[in-house]
Write a structure and sequence with these properties.
137 residues; globular; alpha+beta; single chain; four-stranded mixed beta sheet
Amino acid sequence: MIKALSHLVITSSDVINISRFFTAVFKVEAHFANEDFADFVLPDMSRVAFFRPVGKAKDYFDLIDNPAQVSYGVTVENVDQFYEQLMNLKSEFSFEVSGEPKDHPWGEKSFLLIDPDKNRWEITQSPSKDGHLVNLD
């Protein structure tokens, strides 16, 4: 039985740039970083890592120009404030957003961020205290 979603590993052709972007947007410094790998430990102790497939890893991982099949969900305290701060980074980084944060009938508010590597991040504000999705009855 699965215990937790502990970490997420995402390929990148430019680990340094995507790490700079991740730090600027999410205000978390890399626990470890070089040109091939960067590891971020989040406040809940889960991890996000970016890596450039080299050596044997190239046999198992591809660099995808448009990873539109998946999105990564993260929860922030205040999605409107996060959106405003993100928009201030437009002159430094190339990214897209789906639009301003939108209210959803299940009580959350979110928008989609497409990072410089074209990964999709759903930026969510949840009404729950722990920031996890709410189960509505």
